[in-house]
Design goal:
Blueprint lengths: L5 E3 L5 E3 L8 E6 L5 H8 L10 E3 L5 E3 L5 E3 L17 E6 L3 H4 L6 H18 L6 E3 H4 L13 H6 L22 H14 L8 H12 L10 H19 L1
Parallel strand pairs: 1-5, 3-7, 3-8, 4-7
Antiparallel strand pairs: 2-6, 4-5
């Protein structure tokens, strides 16, 4: 991707990063509005106090709203690996999609191509590690569902952006089996080790967020045996990534 392919639209909703901040996180969102135009207008509305560094339309057009050197207001109340000031260390990308409220639909090929190219450029330039590429629902599971279960995380991982371990053979055969108390504790520990901030009040929401991303065919919030096995696979991949 060359910078000449990026369109410019300045949003007033930004602030300086702290002096000690280093960009080491990439957060992917969907816009959750009916049209790209409505989304961009809101992200540039000073009264809204929300923004993102980039917006990617369904046709693949890329808009830059906030310079990467500044904080955009995209993460909101959020947490990952115990950290909560995520705007300070992250770049936010809004991917145009009406979302679950307005008719959630698959992300078109042209859009995904642009997402892949922009994300690869960002993680390469800022040396963002794979375990720090997240969705909004990962960092705010109690209030956000984006980019959602239709987003192609495996494709990004194949391009070197984020993590996607292939599910073990026979995973579906374990579906529906119960999970005991000991397994439950281990599963919650796996969620925390991946990076999710698990609390008693948001436990089910965290499980749903994990399932949307890593087991998107079913996201019911149940810690069944299939989810526990998938958690163990994903945790192992994240552990390996952190050792690199």
């Amino acid at each position: 991707m060359t910078l000449t392919t990026v369109r410019e639209r300045s949003s007033p909703n930004h602030q300086r990063r702290s002096g000690s901040a280093r960009i080491d996180m990439l957060v992917l969102h969907y816009t959750g509005m009916k049209t790209a135009g409505e989304a961009i207008e809101r992200l540039c509305d000073p009264a809204a106090r929300v923004s993102a560094h980039y917006v990617i339309e369904e046709n693949g057009a890329i808009w830059r709203l906030v310079p990467e050197s500044l904080q955009a207001f995209h993460a909101g109340r959020s947490c990952w690996t115990g950290g909560s000031d995520l705007n300070d260390v992250s770049i936010g990308i809004e991917i145009v999609n009406p979302g679950h409220e307005w008719g959630y639909r698959p992300f078109p090929e042209g859009q995904m191509t642009a997402v892949e190219r922009l994300c690869h450029d960002l993680v390469s330039r800022h040396l963002i590690p794979p375990h720090r590429v997240v969705g909004h629902s990962d960092i705010a599971p109690d209030r956000k569902a984006d980019p959602g279960e239709l987003f192609d995380w495996p494709r990004l991982a194949r391009a070197g952006v984020g993590i996607w371990p292939e599910p073990a053979t026979g995973l579906a055969n374990r579906r529906g089996r119960g999970i005991g108390v000991v397994e439950r504790a281990g599963a919650l520990a796996d969620l925390a080790a991946i990076g999710y901030c698990v609390t008693a009040s948001a436990e089910t929401a965290v499980v749903v967020a994990f399932q949307r991303r890593f087991r998107p065919e079913r996201w019911d919030g149940r810690l069944d045996a299939e989810t526990a096995l998938r958690l163990a696979e994903v945790r192992a991949s994240y552990d390996r990534a952190r050792q690199l």
